[in-house]
Design goal:
Length: 467
Amino acid sequence: MKKRIQNRFVADYVLMFLISTLIGVFAVSLLSFASDVISKNLVNHNYTAERIMTDDLSVLDVKPVLENGGGVQVVSKNYEVIFSQGINNLPEVLTVEAFTDFLTASQAKGNPYSYSIAYNPRAEFWLLVTFPTSIRIDFVIVHNPDFSSVDTQRVAGVILAIILFYLILLGISTVIYSKLTSLSIINPLKKLCSSAGRLKEGDYTSRVDLNLDNEFGELETIFNQMADEIEKEIALRKLSEENRKRLILDISHDLKNPLASIMGYAELCLTKAEITSEQRKAYLATIYNNSCRANRLMTDLFELSKMETPDYVLVKEKLDFAEYLREQMGEAVANLDGAGISYVFNIPDIEIIAAVDRQQISRVFENLVDNAINHNQAGTQIDLTLVDHPGQIEVRFKDNGVGISPELSDRIFEPFVKADQARSQENGGTGLGLAIVRKVVVAHGGTIKLVKENAVGSEFVLLLPKS
């Protein structure tokens, strides 16, 4: 790749210099043509010494020259200025040498004045017309086709050497410049390709460090952001895969006991010949209870899985949340009384309007109540407090029971995490209740957390937006 890019740069720069050279030659030719066209209309070409020359100085017409900012001088054969009007650049003391030097200097390149000088052999004087020079570029290559000079070969050799030197310098500068330019592109590309290759091979920590403040710097930022997103996605995918495997393991473990119990007692009912009606009734009750336990597990698992699909949509309605919570807790009283758990409900007697999915939010409080019943002894007290805040609702659900161990407090909202494994199996807990609670609360745009500072029991704090 490096070789192809460098060769392309060399070719591009050679082409660029050739085009630049052609443009330069064309520009010089165009400038020469324009100068020739313009010069025909300049005043120093319209009013030359030859055009206004006359033998009688008394009829010399100098008015057009003076009107156009020029000057006219007449020098006699004795080198005396016998007439002068307008611009006069002649030496103050005019001698043969001084006049000769002036004539030579008048034809020099870069002269700020344009001189037209003519000699009248009849009247024996020089007529000098002077105009200030406009913008002018003097570049001329002269060749005499009629006569050959002894210096022709030498001059041609010098011109050829200059052309060869130009081409060599052009080639060297092109290679060096293209090399430097290509390196400024190749090095960042090599680093980007190297990092992309490591990313492809599975090194998701690969990043690019170019320290450039140009388009490559922007590409570096975009690449690193993309790598960050890929690393996060891969980490989430691994975590999801681990959770899936653990979920399958937990499901298998939790279904194993009730199914084994169902199979065992069903086998007894089928194979045991001498069985009393009381025993049969007890066996069938055990089968029924374990069937209910397995059904609850599958139902909760179905609900949890449904909440993680795109089809899970809340159907919200505006209601008086205080009145709704009173009704919800009223339905739970019978179960609490049956479990020997006392309760205190602190629900303000005011209207608190909130938009919630009635059916889904009911699962939150049903699961919290079931969780308190399944994991606590008789005599435990639960306290539910509703607090109205601007824009949101706070619900505190607290008990003074056995509490949750510190090692489980950070994972308590994960599926199949159970604070008391023995009591969960005894009371039919599935280990999915709090996971469902969090899913529903988060779907409503709220939060739920376990207060870890409590020395006795456990306390959950829910925050739900009103809108």
